[in-house]
Write a structure and sequence with these properties.
The complex is a heterodimer. By secondary structure, chain A is an alpha/beta fold. Chain A is built from seven helices and ten strands. Chain A is globular, with a radius of gyration of 17 Å. In chain A, about 50% of the residues are buried. By secondary structure, chain B is α+β, with helices and mostly antiparallel strands. In chain B, strands 1, 2, 3, 4, 5, 6, 7, 8, 9, 10, 11 and 12 form a twelve-stranded mixed sheet that branches. Chain B has a two-stranded antiparallel sheet with strand order 13-14. Chain B starts with a helix and ends with a helix. Classes of the chains: A alpha/beta, B alpha+beta. At the A-B interface, helix 2 of A face helix 1, helix 11, helix 12 and helix 14 of B.
């Protein structure tokens, strides 16, 4: 298996808090990795650093050969557009766009014909079981359906890694299970790498690998 | 990106409607204000429209003691040819037309007679208004004003008597009776000068030379009028017979110079603004619009901060967001301007149906008050439809200003958005 992510002595301070403290690990392509830890342990900050949403104060993150520490803001945006997908706890959908358009969001800045863009988004939406909700707006969808839209959006640009921050946090347990099941299926079928931040021990138990953080440090891998 | 921008505008049209309305109203107010300013300026030139001149010069004269026979229209004084020569030499002066305005107290009736040189600008413009017949070919022929002819049953081919001389009527001219130096009969300038020269009563007031006139029409380009007027005042500054005041309070021997500015003062309207004031008000309107739009747009950006955070997270660069905001702003500017144009055209249509009244100074078309039952009937008031029109040049200037507002707003909004860190926005939601 190829290494898709290499983290080397990564550090980040937020205010007076050492949110991530000299963290090093590697992730293989196609892995399903859960990051666990109590509140304030630095999970989300670490996820942000791995996904190129923030820049580290020290150390390095290399994702698919891209050393994120060396990239400018615009280069980081392009990196995110072309290499990674995101799923958030609060879904983060655009209320004025319907399902297909929300899924197509990462493609909007691309020079791509509208039809091709929406076709691609529709395929991604159908692949997560939203074929009967394509023209619906976020306020017309259940929580589980909204999270499926978010998953489809994370897939539309054919990413190598999908980052998910508490993807089941706003869902009931049954719906949460279905979303995790969907991610597991995509992980297996498409060999996609998933990195999830979660409180949920059940999800952690279903993951191939779990990294536990306390006070910004890895205490268990 | 255009697709996304349009979707956003359509879905949240209420948030953007204010911008469209503000741009529309500002555009309409600026364009209408400028058009009105131009229209009132244009209106002040209307009394000159029929005389092919933009400046009229007269010399103020004495009042005759005996009102009979042939007199210079009261209280005009003769202007000598050397003065006209000096006027013609002024830089910016085009055509110089001359006329001799006479009051003829014939035993049968009073007549206003104008001696005209049919070769100069004024003569040609008068000839263009002949409704029947032709210009006089000899000093024994005359044109008669159409209304006067109707009242007195005069037709082409008839004769009329002026100061004991018989003139054959060669044509009728439609001067509507309310023009500058409106007259009842128009004869050759030389014939009028001969009548004046032969008049003992006239010569008793002021010495009249056979080539003198008493009205001079000067044609100068619109931009040159002020400069020519200044030079005219210098050339005609010296009073050569300051012997008192005319009945209208003018100094005898001094020259009166009439320009469109004379009539601008006659037009009373709140819209008769100076150029500078028009531009200042327009600027205030545009700045006000800019502030409202900027405030509204920045407010909308703050409301959408989470949305922009999501966009940045999924890979929108600063340029991509700037493009999106620019398209959204451009669409608002386009619709706002279109609304403004429609409102402006409607306002211009409404204003074009209004009239403007211009009082012609009595001395520009004098009539003896004492012959009228109501002396006020001697006062001439011209009524014109307001010559307002849509000016494409100002439209382009306003479009430029509105586009600038859009550009500034888009830049301010983008600067605000670029400050947003996606991870912080998403963490805080």
């Amino acid at each position: 298996m190829n290494k898709i992510i290499t983290v080397d002595r990564l550090g980040k301070t937020l205010g007076n808090v050492r949110a991530v403290d000299s963290v090093s690990f590697e992730v293989e392509e196609g892995e399903f990795l859960a990051i666990q830890g109590p509140s304030g342990s630095g999970k989300t900050t670490l996820l942000g650093l791995l996904a190129g949403l923030e820049k580290p104060d020290e150390g390095s993150v290399v994702v698919g050969g891209n050393n994120l520490s060396l990239l400018t803001e615009d280069q980081l945006a392009l990196f995110r557009r072309n290499n990674v997908g995101f799923v958030f706890q609060s879904f983060n959908l655009i209320p004025t766009l319907n399902v297909v358009e929300n899924v197509a969001l990462p493609l909007f800045p691309e020079r791509m014909a509208r039809k091709m863009m929406l076709d691609r988004a529709e395929k991604a939406a159908v692949s997560v079981g939203l074929s009967d909700r394509l023209k619906h707006y976020p306020n017309e969808l259940s929580g589980g359906e909204q999270q499926r839209v978010a998953v489809a959006r994370s897939l539309v640009n054919n990413p190598r890694v999908i980052f998910a921050d508490e993807p089941t946090g706003n869902l009931d347990s049954k719906t949460g299970e279905k979303v995790v099941e969907l991610m597991r299926r995509l992980n297996k079928e498409k060999k996609l790498t998933f990195i999830l931040v979660t409180h949920d021990d059940k999800i952690a138990a279903e993951s191939e690998r779990v990294i536990r953080l306390i006070d910004g440090r890895i205490v268990d891998d | 990106m255009l697709y996304y921008a349009l979707k956003e505008l359509l879905k949240r049209y209420r948030a953007y409607l204010l911008n469209v309305v503000v741009i529309g109203l500002a555009t309409c107010m600026v364009l209408t204000l400028i058009s009105l300013g131009q229209a009132y300026k244009e209106a002040s030139r209307l009394p000159f429209k029929d005389i092919q001149g933009t400046i009229i010069v007269q010399k103020n004269g004495n009042v005759p003691e005996t009102v009979s026979g042939v007199l210079l229209s009261c209280s005009l004084s003769p202007i000598h040819q050397d003065t006209i020569g000096r006027i013609g030499a002024i830089q910016g002066v085009g055509d110089v037309s001359q006329a001799l305005s006479l009051w003829v107290f014939d035993p049968d009736r009073f007549k206003r007679v104008l001696g005209v040189n049919w070769q100069d600008g004024y003569g040609k413009s008068l000839a263009a208004r002949i409704v029947d017949g032709a210009v006089p070919a000899s000093d024994q022929e005359a044109l008669v004003e159409k209304i006067y002819a109707g009242k007195n049953a005069v037709t082409v081919g008839n004769t009329i008597d002026i100061a004991g001389k018989r003139f054959t009527v060669t044509g009728l001219v439609g001067t509507a009776g309310n023009e500058i130096v409106a007259s009842d009969a128009y004869i050759n300038l030389a014939a009028a000068q001969d009548l004046a020269y032969q008049s003992g009563n006239l010569q008793a007031v002021e010495a009249f030379d056979k080539t003198d006139v008493n009205v001079v029409f000067i044609s100068a380009g619109q931009q040159a009028v002020d400069g020519v007027t200044r030079q005219l005042k210098q050339v005609l500054a010296t009073s050569d017979s300051n012997t008192g005041q005319t009945p209208l309070g003018q100094t005898i021997g001094n020259y009166s110079i009439y320009t469109p500015a004379t009539f601008e003062e006659q037009i009373s309207s709140i819209f008769r603004l100076s150029d500078r004031l028009t531009w200042v008000i327009s600027l205030i309107l545009l700045i006000g619009a800019c502030l409202i739009i900027a405030r509204n747009t920045l407010h909308a950006v703050l409301e959408r901060r989470k949305e922009f955070g999501i966009m940045k997270t999924v890979g929108f660069r600063g340029n991509d967001i700037q493009r999106l905001i620019s398209i959204e702003t451009a669409v608002q500017v386009f619709w706002g301007f279109a609304v403004g144009m429609a409102l402006t055209l409607f306002a211009i249509f409404l204003f074009s149906k209004t009239t403007v009244s211009i009082a012609i100074p009595w001395e520009l078309s004098p009539y003896p008050h004492f012959l009228l039952a109501n002396p006020d009937d001697a006062n001439i008031v011209q009524t014109h439809f307001l010559p307002i029109r849509f000016d494409w040049l100002f439209m382009l200037v306003t479009l430029g200003a509105v586009m600038l507002i859009g550009l500034i707003t888009a830049l301010l909004a983008t600067m605000q958005i670029n400050k947003l860190k996606p991870v912080e926005i998403l963490k805080n939601e």
